[in-house]
Design a protein that fits this description.
seven-stranded antiparallel β-sheet; 15 strands; alpha/beta; six-stranded parallel β-sheet; binds pyridoxal-5'-phosphate
Length: 377
Amino acid sequence: MDPLCRVHLNWENFRSNLRLLRYISSDLMPVIKADAYGHGARRAAIELEKEGVGWAAAGTLEEAAAVRDAGYSGRIVILLSFLRDADDVELCLRSRLLPLVHRWEDLRVIHEAMDGRGGTLGIAFKVETGMNRLGFPLEEVDRAARFMADSGRMRPEVLISHLSVADDPREDAFTRLQCSVFWKSAAILRRYFPGMTCSLNNTAGLLRRESSRKEICRPGLALYGCNPLHGTSEEERGRGLLPVMSVTAPLISTHVLRRGESLGYGRTYIADSDRLIGWAAIGYADGYRRCEAPGRSMCLRGCRVPVIGRVAMQMTCLDLSSLPFSPSAGEDVHVLGGPGNAVTAQEMAHWWGTIPYEVTCALGRNPLAQDDPPATR
Ligand SMILES: *Cc1c(COP(=O)(O)O)cnc(C)c1O
């Protein structure tokens, strides 16, 4: 099933965002999980390679291996690591991937898989600091460190934890608590593994310079041009980020809706005067949400046009009456991004009652436009 809408990616803007973040913190481990938030993990990794970024964080083991196959030569951490057996460990060794070890079972699987092989597997070690998602609690860090040191078959190259509320300045006390647990764990692990690096900050933590100590920050969102501090007192810190993704859909029908006529399912829109309407070929099957928030709009040649009526499975209706030109069927509408008064992922997230992360992940599953130049190394 090939929808008619298309995803366009501006990798120049991606590089610009990357450079902006590197200016704040030179050591980065860009997060390209979930297919780089819908933008394409392989291509994103090639851009990182070209920019000489030495670390990247992928989602699953398979995604991490694909990023390696795409030609990324730096270190790759597998954030969604779930080591099942020796085959998984073998893949980590072969593709030089650092699984995120977050439970005792991981340590046992690695210890057994490395039996008789010689050498050590580099890993990322996850400590629990307040997210209560993955990781060893502080009380178990020493025991886990001793296990790894005694085993000799694995070596933590980086200590990782994740901040839950770094994007909310009102929650700074909690963030400070997370930082404190993190650095305590780091001190314990470094007694056994002095060369180990640390990585704590996400985009928000990085923009707010949350941790003053030397570490490798893990920005995701900002790379794709969104500001996690939007709407907070510190929004300014994300200034200058440029959107990477835009999405278009062709107008497949335009016609006049007479006064008093309704349109679409549920007849939720009834024209109070003659209107010029158009149907764009994108709907909830393509990740364009059906929710009926006021203010939803798209962009035609840089001009806003309101979404009217109910979003259908593969079509959405627009009121084109206010345009200063007459649009024709076949013309592309910008659902997200584009020239002029573009719709931002932040704005769409607001309509949908969600966050920009979900917007790019959902819309990014659509096919790439042909006009995007192929990846070059
Ligand atoms: C997604 C993720 C990040 C990146 O977070 P952003 O808010 O997008 O910067 C960093 N670390 C971990 C563990 C993550 O899961």
